[in-house]
Amino acid sequence: SKLVESQLGKARVVAEAIDQIADRVLQRVKRSYRMIEQFEQLRARNLDYRAEDTLSLRGRQTVLTARKLVKVDSEQIHVG
């Protein structure tokens, strides 16, 4: 049992592929870090990201495309 207890402290999953199908996934964490080496893709009907303080999106190239409306609402907008 002591071996099992020590292994539960840190668990590492090494897999070729993990498929997960669920109706709902809820995660509540204090901190979360993800390091993606090559590519990450998310497809959703609606997507809502909220930050209480700062939201930062950075890339060598950034593309934002909308079919109908792009809205930027702020007290100040700095470009360049």
Written description of the protein model:
The relative contact order is 0.05. The protein has one helix at 2-9. It is built from one helix and no strands. By secondary structure, it is largely without helices or strands.
Secondary-structure map with pairings?
Layout: H1 2-9
Which key phrases capture this entry?
single chain; 80 residues; 1 helix
Number of helices: 1
In terms of DSSP E residues, the strand content is under 5%
Reading the helices and strands in chain order gives H
**Quaternary state of the chains:** single chain
Overall 3D geometry?
elongated
Biggest sheet details: none
Low-confidence runs (pLDDT<50, min 5 residues)?
none
- The SS-based structural class is little secondary structure
Mean pLDDT over the residues:
88
N→C terminal distance: 60 Å
Number of strands: 0
Question: Radius of gyration, Cα only, in angstroms?
Answer: 19 Å
Short description:
By secondary structure, this protein is low in regular secondary structure.
